[in-house]
Amino acid sequence: MDQPNRSPQVQYLRCDGIGATFTDSGLKSAQWILCVIPADRTTAYANTVPSSAQSYQHLSVSAPFIAVVPAFARVKLVNDNDPRGLVVALDWARLRETARNALGTPTCEIPSWFKAWDPFLREAGDTLAALHASSSPNPRCLAAFAEVFALHLVHRYGHTADTSETGTSLTQSKLTVVEGFIHEHIADNIQIEDLAALLHMSPSHFARVFKKATGRPPHFYLTTERLKLAQSMLSEGSLPLVDIAARVGFQTQQHFTAVFHRYVGCTPRAFRLAHHRPSDLAMRFRLDR
To answer: Same domain, yes or no, for 26 and 151?
Structure first.
């Protein structure tokens, strides 16, 4: 997702690169929202400007997540190494009614501060960024994107606006979403906040319902899944330990070794010596000789 260098404007949508700042006072005073879509290796931080009118809110977001925040929020980069991504501003006061009529749903809001794992909006952001980079983007096409964003936001997140987390359980389908995300992104620096965002829960509530459903805290589950994969790689291959550590989500080989020893009872090297299974190819080579 390349960083655009223009700010095409239509009646309901404006967009700019993730490192840019919306300075239009009309945008901030109207009922607009921002959809922040960072590209890989880019982390954005959104927070309210301290004032007596708004309670302080903040969140950080990086790929593969997106975030939705009010337009008065301040969005800045945590790191500026190759910043890429898109910030889409939507006139929510107008688009909400369009989406509600199209979907036939009662009046609803979406949460004002949240991040979510949303592959659809990430794909839409890629397409919008390519359109945005055009020398003369089609206003009708941009307006259509505004409606698509609004329809998706209302359909996927609108029902959570007035729903309390109290009593929310972790169903098998929700647990499957969490497990799938962990397996797909196990090499990444997964935080409990990220897992909670998958289900639109607060981290503390997610930790409670996850432990109730599985009998284990989220961090313990995540660690054991990393170590299961590591044990498989140690048994079946010959990758260096530093590469295995990186592939299962540990930033250093030293940390990987310490955690592995704590949970498994031996070092990764000792485990490999005791459990390594030669590949079929190597076995055939020895038999042929």
So the answer is: yes
